[in-house]
Design goal:
The complex is a heterotrimer of chains A (296), B (448) and C (295). Chain B has 448 residues and is α/β, with parallel strands linked by helices. Chain B has helices at 6-23, 45-58, 71-84, 98-103, 111-116, 155-160, 179-188, 228-231, 253-268, 274-277, 283-288, 302-306, 344-355, 357-366, 374-386, 392-400, 412-427, 436-445; strands spanning 34-39, 63-68, 90-94, 142-147, 149-154, 190-191, 207-212, 292-298, 313-316, 328-337, 370-371, 403-405. Chain C has a single domain (57-287), classed as MetI-like (MetI-like fold). The chains are: A mainly alpha (296), B alpha/beta (448), C mainly alpha (295).
């Protein structure tokens, strides 16, 4: 660091105070989820300002995980409708994984065609692909919904996954940008060895692209995991309902009265847990890859 | 990465296989031996679960899967699922919504089944069963319960204000000065310094207890438990005729005066602001927390109001209006069958069971709502009485002929979409009650 | 490159093969539905019966629809607050991190909200901002401020929703900007230090201009995303109070899926598309400089 970067001590101190404050603002809601989820619904109203759980209980988690009976749940201020947490978690994992796998592979293949192959009309076709980047999802959501209905795919995994499975304009654009930067020499060497394009793609280009592929996969996974609008339209059935949709349902399933805040926060926390775990495991990687996506 | 070219290809193939495999198995659909049933009231879930259990015992091989969604989401989900063709086989239906669904051929007419099984339709309180016959002359539901609106009050607050409970039976109301009803509300309102709403020095910016509770929903164009009991007691009606009106009357001075009076209560501090009412706690919970002294609400909420620990609650009928009569909406629910069900007979058996004396008595024993069948209502009345709840405040308007029907019209969702924000705007003082004339034009344009 | 290229002629076939899956997805889920939306926007379509051609009627209705105009306005208000505050805060965080720490932990913690679904974020803040039970109002009351019904008041609802989403995205945006800052060579700052330039001056005349390409790209991504605000509204205010949060996405959703008016909803999304496309073209023009090196 240079001398300007350090600056006077008080200025640095002020900088740290601001930064710490921002980190605290970032983290506080996570603590709040925990605090409310460990509280008793009836005690919450009387104890709004306390930083500690009001009337400590694990009841909310029991309700959400379906460990409490209907009567017990209702006695605790829950709706009695248990959230089938494990089912929804499985659905979220399954759909997000499928979307990520398909999207990354197929978008990379398309990007390869746009970046490394010469063919007539390439730029025009790429431009058409790019325009899709500007189409707001709701523009295609309505007919896609009708399409899924007519294919009788509503409330199947296929309906939730398919529109994101083959490509997204962003993924193609992102991978193409990276592939444009690879030196031709590697390819030429392989070609002289008699390798065809599929071989070059799978054995040379993909392994070389590990970093952007990881980035893309992580971004795709997070986006798929957090998707709400599309699964809300086509995947409300209990069998395929993903966590985001399930939470929306749970929120409205209040007994005629106030929301079951403790249960809601417990469910919210549990829904966030898998991604937080992923984050703890791959934290550095995620940070690096998101920065990476920015530079590109 | 392994040195095998085929790996990604194999993965892709496996993925598409998996997708294709999933495609065949609908998730929330209706299997032939399983009947999906929807309701919105969590309080009624245990009662209907009990009905489902007895139904399954009587009909081995058929299972009933009950799903509950909150009122706000219920109709959205139902509409999406009807459009998608994945609606539940049987669902709880509402007078306000069923005409739209019937007009779009989404409901199965029950006439054939009713006459085949000789199900009586004349055993209900008068008129209740006819409401479920649509404009095409076909029946789309069998009544299962009914509800009216009354005034819940906090006994201790009444005593503190020196008001006798018996006085509440003879309240009068008018849109000009609010009558004895407004005087009572003012008396029961207390600010942070302990000054009452009808005393000098009352600080309306720091109210500790509001005389009357404000519902977090504005009731859109109906205001069932919010403002309908005032508007209807002026002699005003929602539509030119009911059922099947095609002209709404939100431009009527009597209606707009009522809304002006109602909003005036907010300005005076007797009612909380809409923003406060809507910020998380429902009207009944705020009542239970001692923030309101009075609260109008429907009979389906009895248990919620009487369930608060340490709060002594009573119920009185709604006040008498300028027409010389009190007013309450008389509403009922029914179970309808979705036209797209793949198990019509099973669905009908379940609907029939829901309307049967056996299931209705089960509901009565749980004492959550008023069953439609008089014999089951008697059961409910006893159970309520055993809990210390006298339901005559709710049933009295029936004997007095003071009940009014929910507006049964086409286009109900669109009417609600126009009137919800319009009433919001009036209650938040962003628009004058006269602005409802314009909303009325928008609503009536739907029928032209 | 001197070797003969017999393979070049075959590139088209190979390209088609490589494009097959993505092209299939593009045609089926982007191109074809987009054309259909154009078609449906000229029809009366309830989804329960076949579409009925009605010409430009939906468009005429849209231009006379005050609530559609309101939805556009509300959305723009949201975007302005959301993007404005988010960019400013993110820039602050990025500069602070650049100056103070390279800690992965700090960056990681700031990124955490981005990993959580909008729906979850909305629910947590809905609780924290509750007028009666919320911690934020409890804190406000300690300093003598009356409770604010953040989601319930017409004037505060949209700013509240915008700020909630700032919370979710600020760390993510900061990280993108931070990466941009790191790409600025140290020597530039050293030169500025020798000139004795003040902190603010360095930021204005060195950091900001050099960061502009990254900033512009971040803005393109976030603005388009910001227009698609739906999740937060759907789980909190549902468009109210009055029409204060009836953003364009939510309005279209209501028309299509609650009021059986698919044709009209299609027309509204065409209008939205035209607006967004115009915006994107304008932004891309600002970005154009040397992004492509097609050979």
């Amino acid at each position: 660091m240079t001398s300007t970067a350090i600056g006077p001590t008080w200025r640095r101190a002020l900088g740290w105070v601001v930064l710490t404050l921002l980190v605290l603002i970032t983290l506080f809601p996570f603590y709040w989820m925990l605090r409310v989820s460990l509280s008793d619904n009836r005690a919450l109203a009387a104890d709004a300002g306390s930083l500690l759980p009001a009337g400590f209980t694990l009841g909310a988690f029991e309700r959400v995980l379906g460990l409490a009976s209907l009567e017990e749940a209702r006695a605790q201020g829950g709706s009695g409708a248990s959230i089938d947490f494990w089912r929804y978690l499985l659905n979220s994992v399954l759909t997000s994984t499928l979307i990520t796998a398909g999207q990354v592979l197929f978008s990379s293949m398309a990007a390869y065609a746009f970046a490394r192959l010469r063919w007539r009309g390439r730029d025009a076709v790429f431009f058409v692909f790019l325009t899709a980047l500007m189409i707001p999802p709701i523009f295609t959501a309505l007919p896609n919904f009708v399409l899924m209905r007519d294919l009788e795919l509503l409330n199947t995994y296929a309906a939730v996954v398919l529109p994101f499975f083959f490509m997204t304009p962003f993924a193609v654009f992102f991978m193409r940008q990276f592939l444009l930067g690879i030196s031709r020499e590697v390819e030429e060497a392989a070609r002289i060895d008699g390798a065809g394009h599929p071989r070059i793609f799978f054995r040379i280009v993909l392994p070389m692209s590990r970093a952007p592929l990881t980035t893309l996969a992580l971004l795709a996974y997070i986006t798929a995991w957090n998707e709400y609008f599309w699964p809300l339209l086509v995947g409300q059935g209990e069998g395929v309902r993903v966590l985001t949709v399930a939470l929306g349902v749970f929120r409205s399933q209040t007994p005629q009265g106030s929301p079951d805040w403790a249960g809601l926060m417990a469910a919210t926390l549990l829904a966030a847990l898998p991604v937080i775990t992923l984050f703890v495991a791959f934290g550095r990687r995620i940070v690096d890859s998101i920065q990476f996506s920015g530079i590109k | 990465m392994h040195n095998k070219l085929s790996k990604p290809a194999a993965l892709a193939a496996a993925v598409s296989l998996a997708l294709a495999g999933c495609a065949g198995a609908p998730g929330g659909g209706s299997g032939s031996s399983e009947i999906t049933y929807w309701l919105w009231d969590a309080n009624q879930l245990p009662a209907y679960q009990a009905c489902a259990t007895s139904f399954q015992q009587a009909n081995p091989g058929t299972t009933v899967k009950i799903e509950q969604f909150g009122w706000a989401d219920y109709w959205n989900k139902l509409t999406t699922d009807l459009v998608a063709g994945t609606a539940p086989d049987v669902f709880t239906n509402h007078l306000n919504y069923y005409p739209t669904y019937a007009a779009k051929n989404q409901l199965l007419p029950l006439d054939e089944f009713v006459s085949r099984d000789a199900v009586p339709t004349d055993v209900y309180p008068e008129g209740l069963a006819d409401l479920w016959t649509a404009q095409d002359g076909k029946r789309y539901g069998l009544p299962k319960d009914f509800d009216t609106v009354a005034l819940f009050y906090n006994k201790k607050m009444l005593a503190d204000a020196g008001v006798a409970e018996a006085d509440l039976a003879n309240l009068t109301w008018n849109p000009q000065d609010g009558g004895t009803y407004e005087k009572l509300i003012a008396r029961l309102t207390v600010d942070a310094n302990g000054v009452r709403g009808d005393e000098p020095g009352f600080d309306k910016s720091k109210v500790a207890v509001h005389g009357l509770g404000l519902d977090e929903n504005n009731g859109a164009g109906v205001g069932q438990q919010m403002w309908s009991m005032y508007a209807l007691s002026t002699g005003w009606t929602y539509t030119d005729k009911n059922p099947w009106g095609t002209e709404f009357n939100y431009d009527d001075p009597r209606f707009q005066q009522t809304m002006a009076w109602y909003r005036g209560l907010i300005d005076k501090g007797y009612l909380p602001s809409l923003a406060t009412a809507r910020s998380g706690s429902s009207v009944n919970d705020a009542f239970g927390a001692g923030k309101y002294a009075l609260s109008t609400n429907g009979s389906w909420m009895i248990n919620a109001y009487f369930g608060h620990d340490g709060v002594d609650v009573g119920v009185a009928p709604t006040p008498t209006g300028p027409s010389g009569k009190r007013a309450t909406i008389f509403n009922g629910l029914a179970d309808s069958i979705y036209t797209g069900t793949d198990n019509r007979d099973g669905a009908w058996k379940w609907v029939k069971h829901l309307a049967s004396a056996e299931c209705q008595k089960t509901v009565g024993e749980k004492a959550v709502v008023f069953p439609a069948l008089p014999e089951a209502l008697a059961v409910a009345k006893e159970t309520f009485a055993a809990k210390g709840v006298d339901i005559t405040a709710f049933t009295k308007p029936l004997d007095e002929g003071a009940t009014h029907l929910f507006p049964i019209t086409d286009h109900a969702p669109e009417v609600a979409a126009v009137m919800g924000p319009a009433i919001d705007a009036v209650l938040t003082s962003q628009a004058d009650p006269a602005s409802l004339t314009q909303a009325n034009e928008q609503v009536n344009a739907l029928f032209r | 490159m001197t070797a003969a290229h017999p393979a070049r002629r075959g590139d088209l076939r190979v390209a088609l093969l490589f494009l097959l899956p993505a092209g299939f997805g593009f045609v089926l889920f982007y191109a074809w539905p987009a054309l259909q939306t154009f078609y449906l926007s000229f029809t009366d379509y309830s989804l329960l019966a076949a579409p009925n051609w009605v010409g430009a009627q939906n468009y005429r209705a849209a231009f006379g629809d005050a609530r559609f105009g309101n939805a556009l306005l509300v959305t723009v208000e949201y975007v302005v607050i959301n993007i404005g505050v988010q960019t400013a805060v993110a820039l602050l965080i990025a500069v602070l991190m650049h100056r103070l720490t390279k800690s992965s932990l700090v960056r990681g913690l700031l990124l955490l909200p981005y990993l959580i679904a909008n729906v979850v974020v909305a629910l947590v803040w809905y609780n924290m901002l509750d007028a009666q039970l919320g911690i934020v109002n409890a804190v406000l009351s300690w300093v003598g401020v009356d409770p604010v019904a953040f989601f319930g008041e017409t004037s505060t609802a949209i700013p509240t929703i915008a700020l909630v989403n700032v919370w979710r995205h600020m760390g993510y945006t900061a990280l993108l900007l931070f990466a941009g800052l790191q790409a600025i060579p140290k020597s530039v700052y050293e030169a500025a230090a020798i000139d004795g330039a003040s902190e603010w001056r360095v930021f204005r005349s060195v950091t900001l201009p050099l960061l502009r390409p990254v900033l512009a790209m971040v803005l393109v991504l976030t603005v388009i995303g910001s227009f698609q605000i739906f999740d937060t509204v759907a789980v909190t205010t549902k468009g109210g109070p009055v029409d204060a949060t009836r953003v364009i996405y939510f309005y279209i959703y209501e028309k299509a899926f609650q009021q059986f008016d698919f044709g009209y909803a299609a027309a509204l999304s065409v209008v939205l598309f035209v607006i967004l496309a115009g915006l994107a073209v304008a932004q891309l023009r600002l970005l154009r400089a040397g992004s492509s090196d097609l050979d």
